[in-house]
Design goal:
By secondary structure, the protein is of the alpha+beta class. The protein contains 2 helices and 4 strands; from the N terminus they run βαββαβ. The protein is globular and about 30 Å long.
Protein backbone atom coordinates (compact mmCIF):
# COMPACT_ATOMS: atom_id res chain seq x y z
CA UNK A 1 0.00 0.00 0.00
CA UNK A 2 1.27 3.49 -0.87
CA UNK A 3 0.84 6.51 1.39
CA UNK A 4 1.08 10.16 0.39
CA UNK A 5 0.67 13.26 2.52
CA UNK A 6 -0.50 16.74 1.56
CA UNK A 7 -1.04 20.08 3.27
CA UNK A 8 -4.45 21.56 2.41
CA UNK A 9 -5.25 25.25 2.86
CA UNK A 10 -8.66 26.81 3.33
CA UNK A 11 -10.45 24.09 5.30
CA UNK A 12 -12.22 25.24 8.45
CA UNK A 13 -14.84 22.65 9.43
CA UNK A 14 -16.13 19.11 9.17
CA UNK A 15 -17.97 19.94 5.95
CA UNK A 16 -14.62 20.88 4.41
CA UNK A 17 -13.20 17.51 5.46
CA UNK A 18 -16.16 15.67 3.93
CA UNK A 19 -15.76 17.55 0.64
CA UNK A 20 -12.05 16.75 0.36
CA UNK A 21 -12.52 13.13 1.49
CA UNK A 22 -15.27 12.64 -1.08
CA UNK A 23 -13.33 14.01 -4.04
CA UNK A 24 -10.03 12.29 -3.22
CA UNK A 25 -11.82 9.06 -2.33
CA UNK A 26 -13.18 8.82 -5.89
CA UNK A 27 -9.71 8.44 -7.37
CA UNK A 28 -8.95 4.92 -8.64
CA UNK A 29 -6.97 2.86 -6.15
CA UNK A 30 -7.67 5.00 -3.09
CA UNK A 31 -8.24 2.80 -0.03
CA UNK A 32 -8.34 5.36 2.80
CA UNK A 33 -8.44 9.15 3.15
CA UNK A 34 -7.66 10.87 6.45
CA UNK A 35 -8.16 14.63 6.50
CA UNK A 36 -8.16 17.20 9.30
CA UNK A 37 -9.47 20.76 9.00
CA UNK A 38 -7.68 21.63 12.24
CA UNK A 39 -4.21 20.77 10.92
CA UNK A 40 -4.82 20.88 7.16
CA UNK A 41 -3.26 17.44 6.91
CA UNK A 42 -4.43 15.04 4.20
CA UNK A 43 -3.11 11.47 4.18
CA UNK A 44 -4.06 9.22 1.28
CA UNK A 45 -3.50 5.46 1.32
CA UNK A 46 -3.82 3.66 -1.99
CA UNK A 47 -3.16 0.33 -3.64
CA UNK A 48 -0.50 1.93 -5.87
CA UNK A 49 1.35 5.24 -6.04
CA UNK A 50 -1.13 7.93 -7.09
CA UNK A 51 -0.52 10.62 -9.64
CA UNK A 52 0.15 13.76 -7.60
CA UNK A 53 -1.66 15.95 -10.15
CA UNK A 54 -4.77 13.79 -9.79
CA UNK A 55 -4.83 14.23 -6.00
CA UNK A 56 -4.20 17.98 -6.25
CA UNK A 57 -6.95 18.21 -8.88
CA UNK A 58 -9.40 16.39 -6.62
CA UNK A 59 -8.62 18.77 -3.75
CA UNK A 60 -9.08 21.70 -6.13
CA UNK A 61 -12.42 20.26 -7.25
CA UNK A 62 -13.49 20.26 -3.59
CA UNK A 63 -12.64 23.98 -3.46
CA UNK A 64 -9.28 23.96 -1.70
CA UNK A 65 -5.58 24.10 -2.48
CA UNK A 66 -2.95 21.56 -1.48
CA UNK A 67 0.71 20.79 -1.82
CA UNK A 68 2.58 17.55 -1.35
CA UNK A 69 4.53 17.16 1.87
CA UNK A 70 7.93 15.59 1.28
Amino acid sequence: MATSEYQVTGMSCGHCEVAVRGEVGRLPGVEQVDVSAATGKLVVRSTAVLDEAAVLGAVDEAGYEAERVA
